[in-house]
Every structure is written in structure tokens, then in C-alpha cells.
Specification:
about 40% helix, single chain, 3 helices, alpha/beta
Length: about 110
């Protein structure tokens, strides 16, 4: 916690761009410091993989995944954007990482 503000990192599939943006606004207005994804590779940020060779794409994805775990390290808790209950392998890994680090885990759509 930074001062009186809880730091929340958003996790989930980047295909849910609008849900990320809505949660970011709602949580910020509720008095939280919100850390979100930097790129929406599945829904709009085509430059993430456009024209990249496969090995570069793989390395870039690994880097982005690692960077997101560093964002979890900076947070007091994570908030999972699980539209329709969807949690992919990458998000499941982030949830497990957060739990092992003793972070609170909250969900957009109910608890798992």
C-alpha cells in the first residue's frame, strides 16, 4: 500500500480490452492506484506481433509476461478480468504467482 492507496495490478486476457479499461477507471475512482497491461496484443495493438519473425515474437511474449509479473510484484493485490469466467493459461500462471507471493486476488466475475 502506498500511503492510503491500495496498488492493484489488472490481470487477464488482453482480448477483453474494454473490460480492462472499465475496471481501470472504476478502481481508480474508488481510490486505488491501478497498474494495467501495456499492450493489448489480442485486441487492437497489432504492432505487437505484426511482421515479427516467430522467434522474436516468442521472445517478446516472454518479456511481456515477465514484465507483468514485475507489475504483480509492485502491487498489493491483483484484479482478474475474467469475462465470462475465462481464465487462460497465462492468467492462471499470474494468479498462482500472486498467490505464492501472498497477494490478494479478486475477480471481475465472482471468486474462483
Amino acid at each position: 500500500m502506498i500511503g492510503k492507496y491500495t496498488v492493484v495490478t489488472l490481470c487477464g486476457s488482453t482480448r477483453f480490452r474494454e473490460a480492462f479499461l472499465e475496471a481501470q477507471k472504476r478502481l481508480t475512482l474508488a481510490g486505488n492506484i491501478v497498474i494495467s497491461v501495456g499492450l493489448f496484443g489480442h485486441s487492437g495493438d497489432d504492432e505487437v506481433c505484426e511482421g515479427m519473425p516467430e522467434d522474436t515474437r516468442t521472445k517478446t511474449k516472454e518479456m511481456l509476461d515477465d514484465m507483468h509479473k514485475r507489475k504483480i510484484d509492485m502491487a498489493d493485490e491483483i484484479y482478474v478480468i475474467n469475462v465470462g469466467g475465462y481464465i487462460g493459461a497465462s492468467t492462471a500462471s499470474e494468479i498462482e504467482y500472486a498467490r505464492r507471493a501472498g497477494k490478494r486476488v479478486r475477480y471481475l466475475e465472482g471468486w474462483r
